[in-house]
Specification:
The complex is a heterodimer of chains A (141) and B (88).
Chain A (H helix, E strand, L loop, with lengths): L2 E3 L2 H20 L5 H21 L11 H22 L8 H31 L7 H4 L1 E3 L1
Antiparallel strand pairs in A: 1-2
Helix pairs in contact in A: 1-2, 2-3, 3-4
Chain B lengths: L1 H15 L17 H10 L3 E7 L5 E6 L5 E6 L6 E6 L1
Antiparallel strand pairs in B: 1-2, 2-3, 3-4
Classes of the chains: A mainly alpha (141), B alpha+beta (88).
Chain lengths: 141, 88
């Protein structure tokens, strides 16, 4: 068994984005000053995260998890884009775009549930402490 | 298992402090007529881009006030008072 360490910066991005998503989805009202700026903050985190990723290959326990992650990224970008557009004069308060923003947010929350289920499944079924990766950074391959 | 419970508990706490603006508890029959409410705002100098009735029983507008500020405002639909105003 080989040990891999997930760098602290990636864990910080993960929890930073997670907190932004949870706050915006459940606590802060749509259109709030904080809702908007947390959204932009999350976008900056995501862009930084991608630029730090470089060419390094990531090993996933379950190759299918990769698709969930890609969809999560896609939703995050979709939320940032539609959220930004809702602030433009042209789409300010636009009901259709608001609905799209909400649908993407619901899909994202669904994907987050899948993500959590995967972690729980891994812990009980495969007895792997996958969830520790995002806390301590320790990953056994 | 303990951690799972802790996480569930914390999520419930998070959800329960959700800040959805509530404007009135009064019955819809007490609410102002939507069209005259909008006309009244326009006559005060507001420009309304979108008008919505929110889940929290508010009349909400997206538009511009008389100083041309881009605003999102939640009104009490009964007395027409401003409950929350967001500058954009």
């Amino acid at each position: 068994m080989q040990q891999q360490k997930l760098a602290l910066k990636f864990r910080v991005f993960h929890w930073g984005v997670a907190i932004c998503v949870l706050l915006n989805a459940f606590i802060l009202e749509s259109g709030d000053f904080l809702h908007r700026y947390l959204g932009y903050f999350a976008l900056i985190l995501i862009i930084l995260r991608i630029s730090f990723q470089g060419q390094k290959k990531v090993t996933h326990y379950n190759p299918k998890a990769k698709y969930v992650y890609w969809l999560i990224w896609l939703c995050l970008f979709g939320l940032a884009l539609t959220g930004f557009m809702l602030g433009l004069d042209r789409f300010f308060g636009d009901s259709t775009l608001e609905e799209i923003h909400e649908v993407i947010s619901n899909i994202l929350l669904g994907l987050v549930c899948l993500h959590l289920l995967g972690i729980v499944f891994d812990a009980f079924q495969n007895k792997r402490k996958t969830w520790m990766v995002m806390f301590t950074g320790d990953k056994e391959i | 298992m303990k951690k799972l419970f802790t996480i569930t508990f914390l999520s419930l706490v998070l959800i329960s402090c959700s800040q959805k603006t509530e404007c009135t508890k009064q019955d819809k029959s007490m609410w102002q007529d939507q069209d005259s409410f909008k006309e009244n705002l326009v006559s005060q100098g507001y420009k309304i881009k979108e008008f919505k009735v929110t889940e929290g029983n508010c009349y909400e507008i997206y538009g511009w006030d008389k100083e041309e500020n881009k605003v999102e405002i939640y009104f009490n639909p009964v007395d027409g008072s401003i409950v929350k105003k967001e500058n954009h």
